[in-house]
TrEMBL record:
MF annotations from Gene Ontology: electron transfer activity
Organism: Vitis vinifera (Grape)
Domain Phytocyanin: start-end pairs: 13-127
InterPro entries linked to this entry: Cupredoxin, Phytocyanin_dom
Name of the protein: Phytocyanin domain-containing protein
Length: 132
């Protein structure tokens, strides 16, 4: 059994968002969070998605400021943390550095992927003391 703390510890984990399905339209990320948590401060979320092409839709990653913006997919005050090009290869890594809710969503097509395609989820990282 490993231990983790707010200062970071070798047992911090990396999670590929969506598992083998990656970050894509139509996947239930609420279920994914429920089945893969708990998450801890200093864990890393890896967002993998194909760059835009003639056969794939573009995706991005936004960090929304609060629960209301998350529920309504309001991106007006959201911070883009990964562009449409950053999900390829090894993906984009986001470290959960703080002990507060993190609300994530795809910002493409004016929030349509968030609203219609379920491309949103939130995590509340715990301070520890361990990964089980």
């Amino acid at each position: 059994m490993g231990f983790t703390c707010a200062q970071g510890h070798p047992t911090s984990k990396k999670f590929i968002v969506g598992g083998s399905d990656h970050w894509r339209y139509g996947f239930n990320y609420t279920d994914w969070v429920f089945n893969n948590g708990p998450f801890y401060v200093n864990d890393t979320l890896v967002f993998k998605y194909d760059p835009p092409s003639k056969t794939t839709f573009p995706h991005s990653v936004y960090l929304l400021p609060n629960l209301r913006s998350f529920m309504t997919c309001d991106l007006s005050r959201a911070e883009q943390v990964a562009t449409v090009a950053q999900g390829g290869g090894e993906g984009f890594e986001f470290v959960l550095k703080n002990w507060w809710p993190h609300y994530f969503a795809c910002g493409e097509h004016d929030g349509l992927h968030c609203k219609e395609g379920m491309m949103k989820f939130f995590v509340m990282p715990l301070l520890g003391p361990y990964h089980g």
